[in-house]
Amino acid sequence: MVVPDELTLADAWEETLTGDCSFYRGADGDPYRNFATDIAGSAEILPLIRDLLDVAGNCDGGPLTVIDVGSGAGGLLARLAMAGTNARLIGIDLRPRPAGLDAGIEWIAGDARVVAGDIRGIRGVIVAHEFLDDIPCAAVEADEDGCPRLIYVDPSSRRIVVGEPLEDPADLGWLERWWPVTRPFMRAEIGRSRDAAWALITGMLNSGAALAIDYGHTRPERLAGTWDGGTLVGYREGRVVTPVADGSCNLTAHVSIDSVAEAAPRAQSSRIARWSSSPGRADFVSLVQTFT
Ligand SMILES: C[S@@+](CC[C@H](N)C(=O)[O-])C[C@H]1O[C@@H](n2cnc3c(N)ncnc32)[C@H](O)[C@@H]1O
Known about the structure:
Elements: H1 9-17, H2 31-34, H3 45-57, E1 64-69, H4 75-83, E2 88-93, E3 106-109, H5 112-115, E4 122-129, E5 138-142, E6 148-153, E7 160-165, H6 169-178, E8 187-190, H7 192-202, E9 205-217, H8 219-224, E10 233-236, E11 239-241, E12 250-252, E13 255-256, H9 257-262, E14 269-274, E15 284-291
Parallel strand pairs: 1-2, 1-4, 2-3, 4-9, 9-13
Antiparallel strand pairs: 5-6, 5-8, 6-7, 9-15, 10-11, 10-12, 14-15
The chain binds S-adenosylmethionine (SAM).
């Protein structure tokens, strides 16, 4: 099926994030109405952030700062404030400042991929918890000959359909490096947009550390075929639903966390691990990078 270029999955998904049918900016887009994240309950995250603040504390620079990117309802920053910290706390989210948030927490309402470009020289910790999986990306499905074909969105039903062979050299190069399409009918999400988002976000840091926690996978798993079905799904009212790019559900796809790690060339160390705080979420991964 051939559909117009402007309705590639990535473009249609972007409309459901920041465009005309934004899921998060709509009245129903309260993240916590549609899914529960671990941010409120995780026992591991505050000690980890404290350790990372110690890393930043040993560096020279301006005021210690924690920036929570895709902060949602600000729950992580609220926990940090409640636990007591001398760090400046800043949330960035598409959504407006949550009502009742601790007055000491700063809030920037906007697209982090734009906002981050204007912030430089931070000494501290950047956190992105269940943020990168929301960043729209392109995806392909291999045909019976193993040729990767771009996934589109049907303009009327807004459901996904498979279209023309992928031709973009940069996308082809990314697949070759990170997620080779070798088996008929396998699907793969192309992580370049997440890599770019991470490069921009970590670019805010002069020194300190960055922490991403998300649904994710690594190249050995992808090569082994563990994720051959692709990972694009919708979430609505706490349930996984068929992904329909009309703003009625939150679209998400797992993050190629190793490719994201490589997108921050200034990082002096990178550690990828399973993030095990939540039993039953074996596909959760963490990435810790230091910038000193
Ligand atoms: C799944 S929620 C996670 C919220 C919080 N980090 C947590 O773990 O509970 C994703 C959040 O990222 C925000 N978000 C998604 N894309 C964004 C973007 N490009 N810029 C800023 N915020 C974004 C959404 O508005 C939403 O609040």
